[in-house]
Task: structure prediction
Amino acid sequence: MKKTFSPFFASLSACNPPVAGNIADRLRQGASHAMAVIMFFSSAAGFCAETGGSSNISGAVKTNVVFESRALTLNECYKLALKQSEYIAIDYEKIREAEAHFLQALGTLLPQVSFSRQDTRNEYSDMNPTYNKSYEQKFTFTQALFTGFKEFAGMAGSRLERKQREYEKLRAEQLLFIDVADAFYLLLVEQEDIEALETIENAFIDRIDELKTREKIGKSRTSEVVMTETQLYTLEDQIESVKSKEQVARELLAFLIGGPVNEIIEPEYDFSLKPESAYQAEAYSRPDVRAAHFAWQADLKGVMAARSGFYPQVNFEGDYYTHRSTTPTDSSWGAMLTIYVPIFEGTITYGQVKQAVAIARESELLFQRARRVAVREIHDAYVYANSDILRVGILEKALKSAEKNYDLQRQDYRLSVVNNLDVLAALQSLEDVRRSFIHVSNERKRFYWQLLVAAGEIDLE
Result:
């Protein structure tokens, strides 16, 4: 499955499905790697804090102010990330560029008015002193009457380009949601993992207290207490390791939203899935697919603009003189109609047309590929989301069985039916199953959001 991470997450993930490309799994490679990432995101967030608020450019990204005592939901984190993201701000400026292209194309169709003054100085002559110093000033009116529909093609192309940029921005916002959701659930899973480990830690402490009590009356050996204490210390080491990863996840989310993260909460969501066909039906209307379609249509207008080089051009130009020194000096205006007919210009225009056709063909192929990629990504996302739903159900049953097994082992130990190793094995099994359940449960939610984004269903409003 090709992950829908933005370029920001591409630096953290090899994007191999589904575990190798999982941010959470990549960050679980060791505390040393975790501290390196903390330093990176801390410096990056500090840089944004210094530069984001100093820009006076309209629409520039600014660092968000988040109250540390405020608990943030996924939706609130996403809204803050929208304001912070440089990629979204860049896409907004691209929309403005397309609007400027439209104004440029429209300007060539509108009349052009200019004013000019020409002062002339000649060498002094006694024969004709009036020509030693003269000036001429006039208003010039220019109107393009026919240019082979080049401007109309340019205006139509700029409208399509604007739509393309709008859908590209919309898709970038959807992909940003995936980045925020991944960071949000990464932080959530680490927090729940710490809670689970601390619960197991309390179980080990209770177990040691019970063994020490039994040791005093001669029902347990000292080695059993020492062995249990060893496992407790090992568990404490795991807790510290997970805490460092939790700090990394917190810094990661803080980097995305542009402010500190103290607490996150998850409202109730309905994570049930519709049939795959319902998601596949939305593949062709996904924002990036529609953007590719508009890009193709804009390039087709470029072919029309290139072909206008074969057509004649008609221009009108008129001058109104407020002061005239050239002949005839008693005429205050003049008009000129110019007809330009290209007969042979080598292969310049022909080459421009071939280039425009090739560019349009490339855009068409990119559009076709975008549709196929959308279908494949929706299918892959649905497979992983549906698989994790099944896994959560299985692990939930396994967790209940592990909890029951641990209670039974403790009861049997008190009756001297089993030894301490059996109880510790049951406790270790409970720890493993509980942590697996936490990870898969949160992974299911991440894959659910990835499926919605793959189908373009995220409601950004």
